[in-house]
Amino acid sequence: MARTLAMFTDTSLCIGCRACQVACKQWNELGL
Length: 32
What we know:
The structure is a single chain. By secondary structure, the protein is an all-alpha fold. The chain contains 1 helix and no strands. The protein is flat, with a radius of gyration of 12 Å. The termini are far apart.
């Protein structure tokens, strides 16, 4: 059985810096 990884982001702590978007793009190797 394949193992799937996920990333959890608590959006209630969001300050609008978009660091979560940068981290997601880096994690998925999508480029900035």
